[in-house]
Amino acid sequence: MLGVGGRLAWMLSLAVLLGTGWWSAKAHAQGGSPPSSPAQGSGLPVPRYVSLKSDRVRVRQGPGLDHKVLWVFRRAGLPVEVIAESENWRRVRDSEGADGWVFHSLLSARRTALVMPWSKGDERVPLYSSDSTGSRAVAELQSGVLGNVLSCDGEWCNISVDDYSGYVEQDKLWGVYKGEEVK
After folding, report:
1. Rg, the chain, Cα only
2. Which residue from 117, 103, 106 is spatially nearest to 176, judged by alpha carbons?
3. What is the pLDDT of residue 120?
4. Where are the domain boundaries for CATH 2.30.30.40 in the chain?
5. pLDDT below 50 — which residues of the chain?
6. CATH superfamily of the domain spanning 114-182
7. How far apart are CA 50 and CA 176, in angstroms?
């Protein structure tokens, strides 16, 4: 049995072995996969939607602190689409199509969506009591409203906005894919 110092030394040795490419092509040829590590990316599907953890997220020109800051997101919970990964950095695209690199720890797997951000008018979207246009509207949502995605069935999403919750037609939201199911 290893003491605390022995366990720490063993863990450091393992980290060095994994970090130096110890995992071999032989293991890969036998159907194995490399151990996941931050250097390998998240292993999650790309593209995918995530949200911003903070109300101050710097977006950079490239994946690293040495790259120029292009702009700063200033809205926690804003949905963004991860379109590429490089080690601990995620290339994200916003609802307007602008993209840049963000450090992974500033992103959350919590799903959120914007109501029709592409609409430039005073258009409103009903928030229904159930997943049917025949049900009662519990609220009207302006374009650009941010909601928490509770679930989606491919046609309807159950979302919450402030003290309201209900259903919105999925194609009226940016932050979920057409036909995507969210549990």
Report:
1. 21
2. 117
3. 85
4. 40-110, 114-182
5. 1-39
6. SH3 Domains (2.30.30.40)
7. 10
Yes or no: domain 40-110 corresponds to CATH 2.30.30.40: yes
Residue of 35, 103, 34, 28 whose CA lies nearest to 73: 103
The amino acid at residue 51 is S
Written in H, E and C, the secondary structure of 89-152 is: EEEEECCCCCEEEEEHHHEECCCEEEECCCCCCCCEEEEECCCCCCCCEEEEEECCCEEEEEEE
Q: Using one digit for the tens of pLDDT, what is the confidence trace for 118-169?
A: 998 889 999 999 999 999 999 999 999 999 999 999 999 999 999 999 999 9
H or E element at residue 60: strand 57-60
- pLDDT, residue 121, reads 83
Within 10 angstroms of residue 61's Cβ, the number of other Cβ atoms is 12
